[in-house]
Amino acid sequence: MTSSWNSFSEEEFTSAIPKCNILFTPSPDKLMWRHLKYILKDKSCLKNIINIANVCVEIGYWPSHFKTSTTIIIPKPNKVLYNFPKAFRSIVLLNTLGKLIEKVISNRLQFHVISNNFIHQSQLEGLKFKSTSNTSITLTHFIYIGWIRNLTTSILTFDISQFFSSLNHYLLTLILGKAGFDPRVVKFFSNYLVSRKMQYF
């Protein structure tokens, strides 16, 4: 079953902007969150930004301006040698307006998949109203249940490095379709994922 994708509302944008950290490093477009917060107080500016977001989804296109990122390489402190990659930390900067639209789209996607029970109950990372506390409570519960049954609990953890760059784009679009998203949303993400550019400093 495919659900409809309605136009974005003012509330979706005004509720997303206060959660943005005003102390973040300026983006490649030199626009900081405090600037955007001020701009969005103007109703005509807010309406124009909402129109940009709506058109992007409607035509299935994410502007190249928002696909270009700047990566700043910073040496980690107190390292004896700096001749290996792990001695450095990278900070990826995207254009602020694009990040705001991404936040709003992300909130809409999450609401859809949760309300349609598409996310498994054991999924705790990256969801609203979930935290590391939920993970700890769930893990503790499993351990106690194991003790009651005279079982030993083992845990296997792993980190997926470079997840975004190795993501199968075709598979993701199939998943979005299976989740019941509007075909326009599926088309949008097909374009959103490709032709990204990165520059280093």
Average per-residue pLDDT, rounded, comes to: 82
SSE run: HHHHEEHHHHE
Count of distinct strands: 3
Please state the CA-atom Rg, rounded to the nearest Å.
20 Å
How much of the residues is beta strand, in percent?
Answer: 5-15%
Percent of residues in helices comes to 40-55%
- Assembly context of the chains: single chain
List keywords for this structure.
8 helices; 201 residues; mainly alpha
Q: What this model shows, in words?
A:
The protein is mostly helical and 201 residues long. It has one domain. Helices cover 46% and strands 9% of the residues. The chain is built from 8 helices and 3 strands. Strands 2-1-3 form a 3-stranded mixed β-sheet. Helix 3 crosses helix 8 (183-192) and helix 7 packs antiparallel against helix 8. The longest helix is centred in the middle third of the chain and has 20 residues, at 96-115. The mean pLDDT is 82.
Indicate the topology.
Layout (H helix, E strand, L loop, with lengths): L9 H7 L16 H7 L3 H17 L4 H4 E8 L12 E6 L2 H20 L16 H17 L20 H10 L4 H10 L4 E4 L1
Parallel strand pairs: 1-3
Antiparallel strand pairs: 1-2
In short:
Helices cover about 45% and strands about 10% of the residues. It is mainly α and about 200 residues long. It has a 3-stranded mixed beta sheet.
